[in-house]
Amino acid sequence: MSCIRFNTPAQRSQMRAMAPSMTTSQEAAELHPAPKVTDSKIARLRLLANDANPKIRESAASSHHTPVKVFEALAKDSDEGVRACVARNEHAPCDVLRMLANDPSETVRGFLAVNFFVPDAAMRTLADDDSATVQRLVRWKRELATA
Length: 147
Description:
This protein has 147 residues and is mostly helical.
């Protein structure tokens, strides 16, 4: 028995007619709005940022609603993964991103290099980085921006 299915032109036409329409990301966001950011949410982010488990701290570092002071503390975290989450977060403050341009971890600087919200001064620092990988990531991002 074959698993190949042969649909007639009428069946294919009916399937096309019944296919669901695709919604844009904007329409999906309007249909499913995010809950409001409350004091309680901010308090939870502060708790997460102080957790002993670095994976939990990474979730705070990845949030769009993390307070500036918490971002500053997470950017100095002893765990490279936590600092990398701050580096790739588009909502991290520019001063924090600028600080990470001199991070000892090539991974952190690499994530910083591909974040489109990094200040120009930090990008110039990364362009002259000792790591060839970070330099290539800076060039790659520059090429994407001009394409």
